[in-house]
Specification:
Blueprint lengths: L13 H17 L2 E5 L1 H8 L5 E7 L2 H12 L5 E3 L4 E4 L5 E6 L1 E5 L6 E6 L2 H6 L8 E4 L8 E3 L3 H7 L1 E2 L5 H7 L2 H13 L2 E2 L1 H10 L8 H12 L4 H11 L2 H4 L1 H4 L15 H15 L3 H9 L4 H4 L1 E3 L3 E3 L3 H16 L3 H13 L2 H7 L4 H11 L3 H12 L5
Parallel strand pairs: 2-5, 10-11
Antiparallel strand pairs: 1-2, 1-8, 3-4, 4-5, 6-7, 8-9, 12-13
Helix pairs in contact: 1-3, 6-8, 7-9, 7-10, 10-13, 13-14, 13-20, 14-17, 16-17
Length: about 400
Amino acid sequence: MANIKELLNNAQYQHVRELLTIAGELSQSTGVSAYAVGGCVRDLLLGKNLYDLDLMIEGEGIPFARKLAAKLGVKKVVPFEKFGTALIPNKPIQIEVATSRMEVYDADSRKPSEINYTDLHGDLSRRDFSINAMAMNIHPKNFGELTDLFGGISDLNSGILRTPMDPDETFSDDPLRIMRAAYFTSKLGFRIKNDCLDSMKRQAERIIIVSWERKRDEFIKILSTDKPSIGLLILKKSGLMNHIFPEIDVMDGLEQTSEWHHKDIFFHTLQVVDNVAELSDKMELRFAALVHDIAKPNTRKIDSEKGYTFHGHDAVGKRMINKVAKRMKLPNKLAEYLKKLTLLHLRPIALVKEDVTDSAIRRLMVDAGEELDDLMTLCRADITTKNP
């Protein structure tokens, strides 16, 4: 069994090691087995910064969390009695303590209908992907011992995303995991194993049982990665984009004029999103890049001289975002931001093509208001997809 405690000697993990040492000493004094699990183990192996700690207890998780919080001087613990978990809002690293468990799901819900407490093996087997199904022992006598029952290290080294158990069962139980697969491909640059991708396609329709709030949050996480197009393309390939964002899904295969690098509207849009991601970390601006041409499929016509035209797609797009915002339960502030940038995204480009007047520039500045810099960034990302 491998031991990874030496990884915690890195200066970036000093506070993490201190927290795990305290939790490990508590596991010894209370006589329960305790492990660091999931994403924190994955990111430790990848050398990434840790912002959360997930602890799994073979015993009662909530009482353990309360005792741990007391040792850390944290007064507040947020328990989730049904799941046997508790959140310790410790700063700067938040801690979640869970009782080792397996879950039984009804076909029409991603919320477990039955929770059975189990051992380490059972807990790891229920997790989404092998790279998240590893555990590090934190007991003082065995501190750093890694349990890797499903080849997580091998998959990390190979850059592969696959499920610990049968993918149909994994994705059917919780279809949100399909979106998480798309997120991890974008975040880590990993490749989804073929049998997993095939299963994602089979289970895509089950995403309807997931609340829009959860789908929205996972979608935003994809947009927040360094190269969002990777995850967005996985949503398309899996069939999930049709359920999450049909207005984007329908762009695929629709041509536009040859002045663009990508004649296909869908791939042009992905390129603009990636261009914005290189220029800005602002999620809202990346979202605006995704929807700026949302009305092109609805306004597409063929002109005998100009080829494909999309007259009015800016104004029509603004109206379409109302429907998108309602469906995805977007905050009003975000919806208004998306509508403004969609409506105005052609204006700066139009000014370049005309004899620019001071009054025209002033009107644009007034109309864009505080979003002027973001609008110019979007236009820059859009226009750089053109052929030279």
